[in-house]
Design goal:
The protein is of the alpha+beta class. Helices cover 53% and strands 17% of the residues. A hairpin with a 4-residue loop joins strand 1 and strand 2 (40-49). Helix 2 (64-77) packs parallel to helix 5 and helix 3 packs antiparallel against helix 5. The protein binds zinc ion (ZN).
């Protein structure tokens, strides 16, 4: 019970003061993702430096879970290789799909462990995953654009 209230406090902190909120320039790709079941929306920008996540900024509207999860996600991926960010997403997804039976790995998920309780509410899992799906989409597009640009250089 004590742990639950600690987790709640972490989520509320990120909700009240979201990290990396406010869309910033420059960026490579901007996406807009919606979670219609709850009404959450996120606009997210990604900037890559090679295969490193240089920047992620977002403008989020919706419930505290979705906004806090997007804040935590941006902390977890910025400055990391894309592959590491994707691996962290896999861990978070595993936690979210675990229905409360997966022990969160704090080394990897940091403040993301606070969402462990959300896994028991399948309707809210989409809220917690919204920012992650926006980041994965934007990053995949940014990598594809890089690939196309490299092709162009090769063919020139
Ligand atoms: Zn929501």
């Amino acid at each position: 019970m004590q742990l639950d209230s600690l987790y709640q406090e972490i989520i509320l902190d990120h909700y009240r003061t979201p990290h990396h909120a406010g869309l910033a320039d420059p960026y490579d790709v901007e996406v807009h993702h919606v979670n219609p079941s709850c009404g959450d929306e996120v606009t997210l920008r990604v900037e890559l430096d090679g295969d490193t996540v240089k920047g992620v900024t977002h403008d989020s509207v919706g419930c505290s879970i979705s906004q806090a999860a997007t804040s935590v996600m941006s902390d977890l991926v910025i400055g990391k290789p894309v592959s590491e960010g994707m691996a962290t997403y896999e861990k978070f997804l595993e936690l979210m799909q675990g229905r409360g039976n997966v022990e969160p790995d704090e080394e990897v998920l940091e403040d993301g462990v606070a969402f462990a309780g959300v896994a028991q509410f399948p309707a809210r899992v989409k809220c917690a995953l919204l920012g992650w799906s926006a980041w994965r989409d934007a990053t995949a597009q940014a990598l594809a654009t890089q690939g196309a640009a490299n092709e162009g250089v090769k063919n020139a």
